[in-house]
Write a structure and sequence with these properties.
Order of helices and strands: HHHHEE
Number of strands: 2
Number of helices: 4
Strand order of the largest sheet: 1-2
Radius of gyration: 19 Å
Distance between the termini: 66 Å
Shape: flat
Strand content: under 5%
Length: 112
């Protein structure tokens, strides 16, 4: 019974990694190739290959080797670094105006 519970947990982790990698792959496929160049990131083909290999490894191997961990690192790099840059270049990301101390109604002046 304990082994079944352990296997069920690994199964859910494998499914989560697969869904996470598939979401990154679909997101990478949606953006135009010139957006990658404008953002100063690797080209679209590079990310599609890396994320496609990650999806395949997660689908066929699960989490029982070190390859899904490498794929997880690549997926996290895509979501944390590449995706925000692509969104900003494409005009879909939040545009930061002013300083970080600005409030919803304008700059915060500290009660002066």
């Amino acid at each position: 019974m304990l082994v079944q519970g352990f296997n069920m947990i690994w199964g859910w982790i494998s499914l989560g990694l697969l869904v996470f990698a598939m979401a990154a792959f679909v997101n990478a496929a949606v953006h135009r190739d010139d957006a990658y160049r404008a953002a100063g990131k690797q080209n679209k083909g590079f990310w599609l290959i890396i994320l496609g290999i990650t999806v395949a490894v997660n689908f066929f191997l699960g989490v029982l080797s070190f390859l899904p961990i490498l794929g997880l690192v690549a997926t996290i790099v895509y979501f944390v670094d590449v995706r925000p840059a692509l969104k900003q270049v494409s005009g879909r990301g939040p545009r930061r105006r002013g300083s970080s101390s600005d409030g919803p109604y304008g700059p915060y002046n500290g009660g002066r």
